[in-house]
Design brief:
The chain is an alpha+beta fold and about 110 residues long. The chain is built from three helices and six strands; from the N terminus they run E-E-E-H-H-H-E-E-E. It has a six-stranded antiparallel β-sheet with strand order 1-4-5-6-2-3. The chain is globular, with a radius of gyration of 13 Å. About 25% of the residues are buried.
Length: about 110
């Protein structure tokens, strides 16, 4: 389910996955939580397309949510399964927010419990 959000979710910043993607979908930055929680070394994901690691059944939903965040310039929440370095998939709750001033999309994700 995709939702518009008025504010950033109140979450524990130590467990957040943070990334920035450009309008082409390439990951241009990410934090250390990607390695801690998903096993990915930074160099394994930088410059790759974010949706490349989304579970195939979730792909259309994720692309729609990111497009909605860009077109409405409002934060959007969505959930998908994202690949772990060990080839498994983990459910992650994401928030996407388009930054008009930089033309980047900020993603914040939390492993679903």
């Amino acid at each position: 389910m995709t939702q518009h959000l008025p504010t950033t979710p109140d979450t524990d910043s130590r467990s957040q996955l943070r990334a920035t993607i450009n309008l082409s979908g390439s990951i241009v930055s990410l934090d250390g939580a990607w390695h801690q929680q998903l096993g990915w070394p930074a160099e394994g994901l930088l410059d790759t397309i974010f949706v490349t690691h989304v579970y195939p059944d979730d792909l259309e939903h994720v692309i729609s949510a990111i497009h909605l965040a860009v077109s409405n310039e409002q934060p959007v929440r969505f959930r998908c399964r994202y690949s772990h370095y060990n080839n498994s998939y983990l459910p992650i709750n994401w928030q996407a927010h388009f930054k008009l001033d930089t033309l980047y999309i900020e993603l914040i994700g939390l492993l679903a419990r």
